[in-house]
Structure prediction request, 177 residues.
Amino acid sequence: MEVKDGTHSSPASTLNGYPLVTSKAIKGTSVDFSQTKNISEADFTEINKRSLVEYHDILISMIGTVGIVHLVTENPVKYAIKNVGLIKSSDKKLLSPFLYLYLLSYYGQTYIRKHLSGSTQQFISLTNLRKMPIPISSDIPAKLIEKLNTIVLQIEHNSNENNTLNSIKNVLLEKYF
Prediction:
């Protein structure tokens, strides 16, 4: 497992380009692109040298509302991240679903809450994310893996359906107004 974060710089906003996702855009099962600004292709490429987001990576909000977890279901991913935790698993079929559900669990959220810093704006450090104990064993039963994958596939399906419905809603609102 590799734990990184997105860029800390503030690239210039562009009219067209690629979305730059920050913690406030992470909404759990989705990313709210109405909360993002666009960046140039050059900035997108440069940011992705450090923190390329890929299918079944896990994003976690690190600043403000800390601990919101998102399993990336887009393939390919066409956005970059800023000040967002990025968890990359060596085994996207087994570990990603487990890590995602663990981070959502009472234990994962309790760890995050106990390790918050900052008085004006709370945050969790990259160091504390890296130190998070993950209770995983190499002999996880096949039935558990199958069940986790079923849950994650349903979440992925629901997320894709929500994104489609939001797109339809936005088109209808544009036509209506």
Remarks:
- The first strand starts at residue 2 and ends at 5.
- The chain has five helices and nine strands.
- The chain has a mean pLDDT of 88.
